[in-house]
Amino acid sequence: MRKIAIVAIFTLLLAGCSPGSELADSGNSNPTAAVPTYASCDDLNLDYLGGISRTGAENTGPLPLFEWLEDDILFDANSVLDEDGDGIACELLVLSDELRTAYETPEQSSLLDLKQALGELDFPRVGQKCGSLEGPSVDTIGYSQKLEFIILRCDPNSEWQPRFDSNGQEQFADLDPETGFPTSVVKELRRQLETTLVATQKIDVPINPLYQEGSACGGGYGWQVLGYNKAGEPAFLKCPNGKGTFIVDNEAYKIDPVSLLPQVPLTPRPYQPMAYSPHVYIIPEISAEVPSSAIDDETQFSSVEPCKVKDLDESPDKSFGFPLPASSAILKPGFKILVLPVQFPDFPTENNPRDDIADVSIELSRYYERMASNEISFEWTIPDTYLPMKKKLADYNLAGPGDFFDYYVPYIQDVVSAYDDQFDFSKFDIVVVEEPRTVTDAVHPMYVPAIRGNGNFRVSSDEGPVTRVLITGNDEIRDIPNWLHEFGHLLGLPDRNWYVGAVLGFDIMFGWYGSPEMSIWLRWLLGIASDSQISCVTKAESSTHWIRPVAWDGEYLKGVVIPIDSSTLLVAESRRRLGYDALTGESGEGVYVYRIDTKAKMYQSDTRILVDSVRPDRATVTQNDWSFDSPLKPGESVISDGWEISVLESGAFGDVLEVKPAKG
Asked: Does the bond joining 481 to the residue before it have cis omega, within 30 degrees of 0?
């Protein structure tokens, strides 16, 4: 790997350590087991990242990136790999991409970024040539004769020599305790890694003052939430296991305290972590690049009616097929949302509800407007005070056993009745009931998108039935992705079926909240993607298509749909770490293929599957339900329902795929 001269990067910054051990192996090999021998250090480092040594060996070369394993038996079996004879074999000075992939975990990603950058630096040594003395003298950090980090100065012979203090002593560099490298070098590298960033949306939503690092927390599932660190700066926090105290999630993106921009590195992680990234939006850059592959004329596939597979599940309020249920709210310009804020004797508040729900009203509006290629907008009506209710919230027994509507319907009816003289409910598309932010999940455990006709939900106002209500319990720790998801149900959008073992990884409704960019199929179903963004393949012959990333804004082709029969279809779309998919790893970029069966059931066991990913054999499954690396790369293909889908080319422009009848 190319080494970068330290002098070319750093001028003297005095700053700090001892070798780090974050990824070091430890312990001795089992003397009764066969001792492995390795043909090369490349092979050995795949098992022992920092190398191996005799007991008590001391390094005589440059500082390795990781600690080595002391194991006499193992070392003796591989001593031929100790090239410098210091009793250490295969000490690691450069972290290759292959080794990084082998060892990387979400928790180690930032550290490995730093270690990889450190491995690319070439520190000067005492006695090495330092160039001409013309011009100002430049001090730098390098190695002494004993290979300790000291301050070097160019002497009259144009050689690097120690810089001495007033007592004639060599001046040692302060060392960073995490890595063992000079603190000033590590600090500058961290700055460079953090400032090589993609463009992101400024975080401009109000932050709940209760969400402070070190403050007590409860509720939720330990996902990321926007709060403050101990310095009073915006940061992503977690409530471990939904209880205890808030901690800063060091693996989440940092937030610049001045610009309030999430600091998202230019290069994606190798793979996606099990995490959320609420409020993080990578502004999509529309690439001018074009593929080199020959593309079929898309007008051949513009007749889309055969691809509008009908809904055959007969669910009263959700659908995977056309059309969405009649009870669904329709997105449009001026979509009207009424918020009914209420407080209780056991949960009083003096807050302004507009402030308390501003993070939701801002983010929910932005999300759906960004998903749409046509014009939609939201009008929120929010009173400026919480209306006092007579009963305690606990007296509604919302956590009681049995059908939750038995408890929630009387509660929601009381709230609607309390506001009935203030609003004409027939003028609003959706009603949201919001309680003070201090309400706990234990008292108010359900977040329910309630639609009249689903179960026993029956609530009325003076104007007639209230059709759609968002009941916002289970939100003690604000869960913005869950708001986006549950709101989608009021639009008629479906869930996946958790009873059938489907494995998905993308889409806010049927995929994963950590990859919330909505699929092209659901956008089309909602009417916020146009027919021109779909290629409908009906002829049993080969065709080639150029699809753009789903997160791009504009009337681009974004999906290839293949109808299989009256209820089943295949969809292929392009996914990138863009938009709200800020956590998508490099392995999650490519052509995402999924299969939909509108005849399958949604909330019960079934032999049919509503929606499932169509994955290559190499795809991995996380925690039984998720696959974040299922998108296809160039040269890969999948076969399903008699069709083969292959990726011919990928780039910043999106993906080129070929679809054709499968052989045999």
From this structure: no
